[in-house]
């Protein structure tokens, strides 16, 4: 009886520690300035489709983290050509998005003075499509989420899924905080000048990330 109790405590502790490791490791990789996070912030500030976009980002992360745990990372690392192509395609896409942001900063439209966003005008599917593209066309997604988290998860052996759950929880908490936190900042962006500053920052980050990805391909 005592031996079974001690074994139960050991197993519970092992899984709890693995889950906490997943939570903090996932947060460390997810919390960064990147195209996906910037898009969520802009959706939140503009009053766009915040919750659906957050859902796309979270579900995508859960799928990718789980894929890394089951071994997709080994497949990706065995075919470096795939990563190179993804860097070029993703880099070009980010440069284009950066160009759009630069155009908005240079010539703001009337919607810049309201809680409105171009993707909102195009509809829900356009917003979701952009979120999907920013997630799945970003090669860093595969390097960080699939390869890194997948490798660390598998180092926890029987507790690998506890690590995976922890990493997924980090994604859920982060994107909810990011999206709805940005929504609270909406009153600060009631002027054209504020939107021009935001779009200028977005343009610099997007183009910079895009060029760096292409250079590394």
From TrEMBL:
GO terms for cellular component: plasma membrane. Signal peptide: none annotated. It comes from the Bacteria. Pfam families: LysE (PF01810). InterPro entries: LeuE-type. It is a multi-pass membrane protein. One of its GO terms (molecular function) is amino acid transmembrane transporter activity. Keywords: Cell membrane, Membrane, Transmembrane, Transmembrane helix. The chain crosses the membrane at residues 15-35, 47-76, 82-102, 123-141, 161-182, 194-216. It is found in: Cell membrane. PANTHER family: ARGININE EXPORTER PROTEIN ARGO (PTHR30086), ARGININE EXPORTER PROTEIN ARGO-RELATED (PTHR30086:SF20). This is Putative amino acid transporter. It comes from Gordonia malaquae NBRC 108250.
């Amino acid at each position: 009886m005592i031996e079974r109790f001690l074994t139960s405590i050991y197993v519970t502790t092992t899984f709890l520690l693995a889950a906490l490791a997943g939570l903090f490791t996932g947060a460390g990789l997810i919390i960064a300035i990147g195209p996906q996070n910037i898009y969520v912030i802009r959706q939140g500030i503009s009053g766009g489709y915040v919750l659906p976009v957050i859902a796309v980002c979270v579900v995508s992360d859960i799928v990718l983290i789980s894929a890394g745990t089951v071994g997709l990372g080994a497949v990706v690392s065995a075919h470096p050509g795939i990563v190179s192509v993804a860097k070029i395609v993703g880099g070009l896409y980010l440069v284009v998005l950066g160009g759009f942001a630069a155009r908005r900063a240079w010539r703001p439209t009337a919607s810049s003075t309201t809680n409105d966003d171009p993707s909102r005008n195009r509809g829900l599917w356009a917003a979701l499509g952009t979120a999907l593209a920013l997630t799945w066309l970003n090669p860093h997604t595969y390097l960080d989420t699939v390869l890194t988290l997948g490798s660390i998860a598998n180092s926890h052996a029987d507790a690998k899924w506890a690590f995976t759950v922890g990493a997924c929880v980090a994604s859920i908490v982060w994107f909810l905080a990011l999206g709805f936190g940005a929504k609270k900042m909406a009153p600060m962006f009631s002027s054209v000048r504020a939107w021009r500053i935001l779009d200028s920052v977005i343009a610099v980050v997007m183009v910079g990330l895009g060029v760096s990805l292409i250079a590394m391909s």
